Amino acid sequence: MAECVSIAIEHIQDSDEEVVRCAAWALSHLGTEKAVATLIDLRNHPDADVRHAVANCIELRKHPEGVNILTALMEDKNEVVRDWATFALGNDDVIERGVRRFTDSPEIRAAFRKRLDDSYEEARRKAIWALALRNDPLGVKLLLKHLESEEWWNGDRDAAEELLGLHPDTSIFYRGTS
């Protein structure tokens, strides 16, 4: 693992942009402490795909700077980066005594609320789900509005199942069934 991380880090400075992208994605998936530290340094990289790799790194969520980095990436000019940063922070959870708890603070909720006006629907939906999972009244209201529409997404159903503690095959989500 250490050798793989070292090789990827070496290639971060490569002159070929595709090599740099691949190295960033390798680090994102390897997720060691050294890989995460290198990715943190890439959070403002000019290439959106490199920033996307940073937002996609699961281990970044556990880093002391993770929340701040992800909230900053939620403001990225690239819609896919914003979407993945919103997803990553929205799904940042821990299981304590058998109960799933999400990372939460007024600042985190404010970052999700800002995404509710995002021009990219994927990011907007993920912000709604994140707020709902934190029992935020606005998030719950918007989630219910989506569920009542003809255009609800599977993520709407998944968030509602988690929020309400429903089993995935609950018939409430299947129109025309009892």
Q: Any overview of this molecule?
A:
α2 packs across α3 (33-41) and α4 (48-56) packs parallel to α6. Helices cover 61% and strands 4% of the residues. Strands 1-2 form a two-stranded antiparallel ribbon. The chain is built from 10 helices and 2 strands; from the N terminus they run ααααααββαααα. With 178 residues, the chain is mainly alpha-helical. The mean pLDDT is 90. It has 2 domains: 1-63, Leucine-rich Repeat Variant (Alpha Horseshoe); 71-178, Leucine-rich Repeat Variant, CATH 1.25.10.10.
Properties at a glance:
single chain, 178 residues, mainly alpha, Leucine-rich Repeat Variant, 2 domains, two-stranded antiparallel ribbon, 10 helices, 61% helix, elongated
In short:
The chain is mainly alpha-helical. 61% of the residues lie in helices and 4% in strands.
